[in-house]
Design goal:
Shape: globular
Number of helices: 1
Largest sheet: 5 strands, antiparallel
Helix content: 10-25%
Order of helices and strands: EEEEHE
Strand content: 35-45%
Radius of gyration: 12 Å
Number of strands: 5
Length: 66
C-alpha cells in the first residue's frame, strides 16, 4: 500500500478519545506515526496492523511537480 507523509488515513473504526476517523501520517517506515485530526493525539502503530485498519487514503494533488 502506497502511504506517504502528509496523507490522511480514513480508518474503519473511530479514535476512542474523540470519535474522529481521520489520521494524519507523520512518519512512514516499519512503523507509522499517526496524529488524530480530531484531538491531536500522536501515536505509533506497526505498519502491518495499521494497513488492516485503513478504509481509504486522502491525498492532496501534487502541484509542485509541474
Amino acid at each position: 500500500m502506497d502511504i506517504r507523509l502528509g496523507d490522511i488515513l480514513v480508518m474503519k473504526k473511530p479514535h476512542p478519545g474523540c470519535g474522529s476517523t481521520q489520521m494524519l501520517v507523520q512518519r512512514v517506515g516499519a512503523d507509522f506515526r499517526l496524529c488524530c485530526k480530531g484531538c491531536g493525539h500522536s501515536f505509533m502503530i506497526p505498519r502491518s496492523k495499521c494497513e488492516k485498519k485503513i478504509r481509504s487514503v486522502l491525498r492532496e494533488t501534487e502541484n509542485s511537480e509541474g
